[in-house]
Amino acid sequence: MAKKQGTNGAKPIQATPASEWAAETELVTLPSGHVAELRRPDVIDLIANGEDAPDLLTSVVLAQINRKARTLELTPETLPQVMQMMNLIVAASFVAPKVPDELPLARLSFNDKSFVFAWALGAQYEAAANFRHQQAGGVEFVPPVQDVPAESEPDVRDTE
């Protein structure tokens, strides 16, 4: 059993209920005019949890974290991975209606998918870049401290 701690006679702390851990959602009007309840998925979690993330998604996210420019070049070779990446992000973004349970991905237009994809990743790239920037942030130099015994005497050498 976890120990409850409080400071200076403050009310004991308790664990936050699971209901308060839910990701924030937004009602978003898509280019088609349809309105969906969306959340910004944690792309790193999608990759880490083996959600069939294509290698292209992993490399794009890592490039953003490392602050290296990485653009998605659409070619016949990359198109299948880009579409797989888009479908993964889009499906993870929909809260209502649920994709693919209530709304199959095939019923979403390419414009709506592209919009949701950009909406979802906009915050992810910013968060990843900010995380890397914060980690690389300057730390002030702290000179070594020498222990000085309390009984030490001042240096009274002849300075002339």
Explain this structure to me?
By secondary structure, this protein is mostly helical. The model is unreliable at 131-136 (pLDDT under 50). The chain is flat. Helix 3 (79-93) packs across helix 4 (110-135). The chain has a domain at 24-133. The protein contains 4 helices and 3 strands, in the order E-E-H-H-H-E-H.
* Integer-rounded radius of gyration: 26 Å
Roughly how much helix do the residues carry, as a percent range?
Answer: 25-40%
Number of strands: 3
Topology order in helix (H) and strand (E) letters: EEHHHEH
Overall pLDDT, averaged? 75
Distance between the termini: 70 Å
What share of residues are in beta strands? 5-15%
Helix and strand content put the structural class at mainly alpha
Q: How would the global form be characterised?
A: flat
Which strand order does the major sheet show?
Answer: 1-2-3
Largest sheet: 3 strands, antiparallel
Per DSSP, the total helix count is: 4
In short:
By secondary structure, the chain is mainly α.
Tag the structure with descriptive keywords.
three-stranded antiparallel beta sheet; 4 helices; 160 residues; mainly alpha; 36% helix; single chain; 8% strand
List the helices and strands and how they pair.
Blueprint: E1 25-29, E2 35-39, H1 43-48, H2 55-65, H3 79-93, E3 94-96, H4 110-135
Antiparallel strand pairs: 1-2, 2-3
